[in-house]
Amino acid sequence: MASKNFNAFEMAQKQFDSVAEMLNLDQATKDLLRNPMREYHFSIPVKMDDGTVKVFRGFRVQHNDARGPGKGGIRFHPQETIDTVRALAMWMTWKTAVVDIPLGGSKGGVICDPHHLSMKEQEQICRGWVRQLSKDIGPLRDVPAPDVMTSAQHMLWMLDEYEIITGNKYPGLITGKPVGMGGSLGRTEATGYGVIFTLREALKELGIDPKKTKASVQGFGNVAQYAIELYLKLGGTVIAVSCWDQDDQTSYTFLKKDGIDFPKLLSITDQFGGINKDKAKALGYEILHGDAWIEQDVDILLPCALENQINSETVKKIQKNVKVIAEGANGPTTPEADAVIKERGIFMIPDFLANAGGVTCSYFEQVQSNMNYYWEKEEVLSKLDVKMTSAFLSVSELARTKKLYMRDAAYVIAIDRVAQACKERGWV
Ligand code: NAD
């Protein structure tokens, strides 16, 4: 979601340009990779419950599919913009490449606010989105998934519409489906757990015992919740979480210096990851302004909400004890803030590596759906751990040997793999 002064796509291109320079890519490869290969913009008319018809704007961007079918989520958000979708599609290309799964990068979105839409209205948006794109997506072409404010139910409606149109069963069309309807066990946990698999390896490398660490988290939705669950299992302490408050239209940080009680906090949280302020106050939480999560005296920061959260202003608030930032969200750090973090020597686990657990498990779901044979949860999560750990180790080894910032090392590996695939196919 773009704000007045922030354009996620410009940021994604800026990041790409600096690595393209490092890799000495030729002009054609640069031209190919700094823009999406294809994009679709369309209208979705919906018969609202009050009898009126409202038209919603939808998008799908296919950034690059040289390494395999496109892969990427669909967001429902009132401030969605095409440039955000473009940036996210590009980041998906790098994400699938850095974890070395045979998929490309895509992303989709609809400008809408599910908080103010009935389930029937949301179902029509889902079905309308697929009707507009049925020829341009598919299990061998481009495979959507859930993202911000879309769920397993939305995916099932989309799959159903696709199967009605094509007349066949294609559980591999879409991932993030409900378990028992083609979904994979472990998908709900995958992104948050993946963040912590990489954090665990980073702490190992830095010689830090997780039990002696404290963390502050931005967000309390799917990614944040499972990241917190696994981090607590490693013995860490979470002292702050933050979330968006729908009624006040602003964000708040919930602070408890001796550590949050995770199950209790979950019990006062709604389906959108919003924490009830009054109940939290009653449980002894200090309620602070939205940016307070970044100002805490902790070892680890876990931005798990939105892009553009660690920027040239907020980066100044990061305390001196912070040693690791693991980006659960996509694009939470701007290049200006990156420069400061690099300078300060904070260990950065960049978004497209840290949060690649979701797409890796989606890939497992697609494999299982295409085979029509489903694995046990332990098998999924242990395969996920292997993939995430090996991706982290390749990036951190390159960073160490070439003295690169972790984000740059991850980009070098990912962009090089995609550029190679384009070359080998004879595209450039
Ligand atoms: P979600 O909708 O489940 O949760 C989002 C959380 O962020 C909620 O708690 C919400 O209250 C909070 N939030 C929103 N605006 C905020 C603000 N301004 N300040 C503080 N908190 C705010 O979404 P999610 O699935 O957890 O996704 C979070 C991020 O992770 C997004 O950037 C998404 O693209 C990325 N991501 C998600 C997945 C996945 O599998 N879910 C995978 C990869 C990346």
Topology:
Blueprint: H1 8-23, H2 27-33, E1 38-47, E2 53-64, E3 70-77, H3 82-98, E4 105-111, H4 119-133, E5 142-146, H5 152-166, H6 187-206, E6 214-218, H7 222-233, E7 237-245, E8 250-255, H8 262-267, H9 277-282, E9 286-289, E10 300-303, E11 324-326, H10 335-344, E12 347-349, H11 351-354, H12 357-371, H13 377-402, H14 406-424
Parallel strand pairs: 3-4, 3-5, 6-7, 6-10, 10-11, 11-12
Antiparallel strand pairs: 1-2, 2-4, 7-8, 8-9
The protein binds nicotinamide-adenine-dinucleotide.
Structure description:
With 428 residues, the chain is an alpha/beta fold. The protein has two domains: 38-94 and 103-183, 3-Layer(aba) Sandwich (Rossmann fold), CATH 3.40.50; 188-354, NAD(P)-binding Rossmann-like Domain (Rossmann fold), CATH 3.40.50. Helices cover 44% and strands 18% of the residues. The chain contains 14 helices and twelve strands. Strands 9-8-7-6-10-11-12 form a seven-stranded mixed beta sheet. α1 (8-23) packs parallel to α3 (82-98). It is globular. The mean pLDDT is 96. Bound molecules: nicotinamide-adenine-dinucleotide.
How many strands, what sense, and barrel or not for the largest sheet?
7 strands, mixed
Mean pLDDT: 96
Secondary-structure class: alpha/beta
- Strands side by side in the biggest sheet: 9-8-7-6-10-11-12
**Text of the CATH class of the largest domain:** Alpha Beta
**Oligomeric state, counting identical vs distinct chains:** single chain
Radius of gyration: 21 Å
Q: Can you name the CATH architecture of the largest domain?
A: 3-Layer(aba) Sandwich
